[in-house]
Specification:
The protein has about 425 residues and is of the alpha/beta class. Helix content is about 45%, strand content about 15%. It folds into two domains: about 200 residues, 3-Layer(aba) Sandwich (Rossmann fold); about 230 residues, NAD(P)-binding Rossmann-like Domain (Rossmann fold). The chain is built from 19 helices and 14 strands. Helix 1 crosses helix 3 and helix 12 packs antiparallel against helix 13. About 45% of the residues are buried. The mean pLDDT is about 100. The structure holds nicotinamide-adenine-dinucleotide and uridine-5'-diphosphate-glucose (UPG). InterPro entries: 6-PGluconate_DH-like_C_sf, NAD(P)-bd_dom_sf, UDP-Glc/GDP-Man, UDP-Glc/GDP-Man_DH_C, UDP-Glc/GDP-Man_DH_C_sf, UDP-Glc/GDP-Man_DH_dimer, UDP-Glc/GDP-Man_DH_N, UDPglc_DH_bac. This is UDP-glucose 6-dehydrogenase. Pathway: Nucleotide-sugar biosynthesis; UDP-alpha-D-glucuronate biosynthesis; UDP-alpha-D-glucuronate from UDP-alpha-D-glucose: step 1/1.
Length: about 425
């Protein structure tokens, strides 16, 4: 089938390449010229394991083409995926839907044949209905259907999550004929057993925001327990392991530490609260305020811990920050807990040197005033404290003895509970978590 993907960021580029992998002919539309040129050459403008090979193969085969032209898009196909960003509004907790609206505003008046627009972006409940009303007004003598097909992929596992998802969700309005089209698109995935849930658009929108709210709540739950463990001298990792054996709880997403960041969980729980407020249901989600608070406290706690191990003041100290991406296997620094901590420590007068295996360029753009080193060992040169804030394998397997020979003081803060405490303590390090 022929289809168009509007917006080629972390989600859209992956979706476009994966749809080509499923055998479809795909046209990807991106508004940022540098990203578009890179993609057209078969290069991925961000780090996502497995995506470069897949994308290059389908660019070379001609199954995937890249353009900036909505006029070309409406000639090319009658099925359009919206994968543009829905960031947090500046100065407000709600979702900024300007990019979704701009895509619909530009696309619909150009349509000369009946079309199906499938939203993949994460949006507040009620958005599909609003866009459907708008599309009715903008459409010129054609039937334009809006449906929602939210995406659940994780960065770092984006290709496998797209090709082998836990489930597919489709939200359609009454009388829709979109189900058959969407079944055809995902047939190779559905035929090997992926659950395909067809519901109404508002339910589909809520499946997505509820899933992220649950994941965020699970992380903040274990981080709240970590606070109590710290006060009581208990071991939160052992608590997580033990409660995780209960199949009703499960061990995944119970890793205590610096908490969640990224381009999804933080902004999605805030947008969810904002939307619930608009719907008169603010109280129902008031617990998410606490989920957010617990999460943000993890960051200030690590800053405080760093201050403590540095003798009570950060002024003039040298701090090594290992990790800048919001999680390993990604170069994404959107709302990165690691960079947030690095920035706070710098504000208190320390000189902070950051190293990350993949996120250096993105970090420099967001935090140009931090120092950057070319390796973990270089970042730790003469450090008064070393902070591991993203659990890259490279940091988990650091040699405590070797690192000990370059630092000024043997202070290591394990912000992700990912290091082997014994291995560090036996080398004389003051290990804190
Ligand atoms: N990143 C993820 O892991 C992930 C997973 C599931 C859902 N989502 C959701 O998917 C959406 C996109 O997220 P992302 O992380 O890919 O964001 P992103 O910022 O990386 O990508 C969005 C892309 O859309 C482009 N764009 C903006 N307006 C456009 C327009 N009118 N036409 C064509 N292109 C346009 C931007 O230039 C950008 O490249 C968000 O709603 C997000 O919440 C993201
Ligand atoms: O036990 C855990 C698990 C995760 N995290 C942190 O939580 C954040 C988010 O991690 P993850 O959910 O793996 O990353 P994302 O790629 O942002 O994926 C989330 O957000 C996407 C966008 O909506 C959804 O599609 C995914 O299903 C959802 O997992 C990261 O900072 C992690 O370090 C923890 O602190 N502890």
């Amino acid at each position: 089938m022929r289809m168009v993907v509007l917006g080629l960021g972390y989600l859209g580029a992956t979706h476009a390449a994966c749809m080509a992998e499923l055998g479809h002919e795909v046209l990807g539309i991106e508004v940022v010229p540098e990203k578009r040129d890179q993609l057209a050459r078969g290069e991925v403008p961000f780090y996502e394991p497995g995506l470069p090979d897949l994308l290059k193969r389908h660019i070379d085969s001609g199954k995937l083409t890249i353009s900036d032209s909505y006029a070309q898009a409406v000639e090319f196909a009658d099925v359009f995926f919206i994968a543009v960003g829905t960031p947090q509004k500046k100065g407000d907790y709600s979702a900024d839907l300007q990019y979704v609206d701009a895509a619909v505003d530009e696309l619909v008046p150009l349509l000369r044949r009946d079309a199906l627009i499938l939203g993949k972006s994460t949006v507040p409940v009620g958005t599909a209905q609003r866009l459907a009303d708008k599309a009715d007004e903008l459409a010129k003598d054609v039937a334009v259907e809006i449906a929602w097909n939210p995406e659940f992929l994780r960065e770092g596992f984006a290709v496998q999550d797209t090709l082998r998802p836990d489930r597919l969700v489709l939200g359609i309005f009454a009388g829709s004929r979109a189900e058959a089209t969407v079944r055809e698109i995902y047939e190779p995935i559905i035929s090997v057993g992926a659950p395909f849930i067809v519901t109404d658009p508002q339910t589909a929108e809520l499946v997505k925001t509820s899933a992220n709210a649950f994941l965020a709540t699970k992380i903040s739950f274990i981080n709240a327990i970590a606070e109590v463990c710290e006060a009581a001298g208990a071991d939160v990792k052992a608590v997580a392991d033990a409660i995780g054996y209960d199949a009703r709880i499960g061990r995944r997403f119970l890793n205590a530490g610096l908490g969640f960041g990224g381009g999804c969980l933080p902004k999605d729980i805030r947008a969810f609260m904002a939307r619930a407020g608009e719907l008169g249901a603010a109280e129902a989600l008031s617990f998410l305020r606490e989920v957010d608070n617990v999460n943000m406290r993890r960051r200030t706690r690590i800053v405080e811990l760093t201050r403590q191990v540095c003798g009570g003041a950060l002024l003039g100290k040298r701090i090594a920050v290992l990790g800048a991406a919001f999680k390993p296997e990604s170069d994404d620094v959107r709302d990165s807990p690691a960079l947030n901590v690095a920035g706070q420590i710098q504000l208190q007068g320390a000189s902070v040197t950051v190293y990350d295996p993949k996120a250096m360029d993105n970090s420099r753009k967001v935090f140009p005033t931090l120092d950057y080193a070319g390796s973990a060992i270089d970042a730790c040169e003469s450090a008064d404290a070393v902070l591991v804030l993203t659990e890259w394998d490279e940091f988990v397997s650091l040699d405590a003895r070797r690192l000990g020979s370059v630092v000024r003081s043997l202070n290591i803060i394990d912000g992700r509970n990912c290091l082997d405490r014994d291995a560090w303590e036996t080398q004389g390090w003051n290990y804190r978590t």
